[in-house]
Specification:
With 288 residues, the protein is α/β, with parallel strands linked by helices. It has helices at 40-47, 65-68, 70-74, 91-101, 106-119, 135-147, 165-178, 192-195, 215-219, 233-242, 276-284; strands spanning 3-12, 15-25, 28-33, 55-60, 63-64, 76-79, 153-157, 183-188, 200-205, 208-213, 226-231, 244-251, 254-260, 270-271. It folds into 2 domains: 3-216, P-loop containing nucleotide triphosphate hydrolases (Rossmann fold); 220-284, no CATH class.
Length: 288
Amino acid sequence: MLIEVKNLSKRFADNEAVKSLNLSFEKGVYGLLGANGAGKTTFMKMLCRILTPSSGSIFLDNSNIKDLGEKYYDLLGYLPQDHCYYPDFTAREYLTYIALIKGIDKKIIKKRMQEVLDIVSLSNAIDKKVKTYSGGMKRRLGIAQAIINNPLILILDEPTAGLDPKERIRFRNLLSKLSHDRIVILSTHIVSDIESIANKILIMKEGNIILNDCKENILKKIDNYVWICRISYEDSEIMQEKYIVSNIKSYSDGVEVRIITDKKPHETAEKISPTLEDLYMFYFNEFS
């Protein structure tokens, strides 16, 4: 299975949110990383045929997705950033409704519902109303609806919002398992969500994909740019004004500062290996 994106753009009035993207996706996990407003959600909505491109096309195995109709939707699972629920439905009622909309055979809905609820650890809450769910539970229910049709293309926009650390680890493990025979595209601004599971990482900024490669190759872009040094608290204040600082750790006699720059920032500074978070800071100069 192959998705090809060719010269894809989307303009809203005077704002070009996505700018002439050319990409391809095969089986595996793709991490789409960028700050809020980078164009990630607009791009994913075009992949899901929720938005129509201003120009360019998307192909699945050489067929334009706009010509595939329901065949494309049958292959697709989607969790939007702001997923809407029916608060007075139970999880059982909600997933049954979604399954019927997706055209799943009535004979297997009950079995499939139980499978996905087991996956997202909501089996014990199947008959509780969604309005009683916590934010994390609602997000897990959103993941369940996205995978209930066993999609070959899974598109997830900020899927771990509201999940606690344990749930996020569980979710990442689930994605790794699903990716063996699927295309999984995960959009986020949380670096740790994709650092350990993505086969390829795409960095999106101002509507452009500025990097598209495996983690190891991407990190080579900032080889020799990351430094660590032990300095006084007063000096750390100066450093934050002059450089990109990705981390500060306090000690009784000062602070340890992680700095991103192409020149040695302090006489005590030593080079260290970069992380994906360092790369994010380098391109966006902000914390994720």
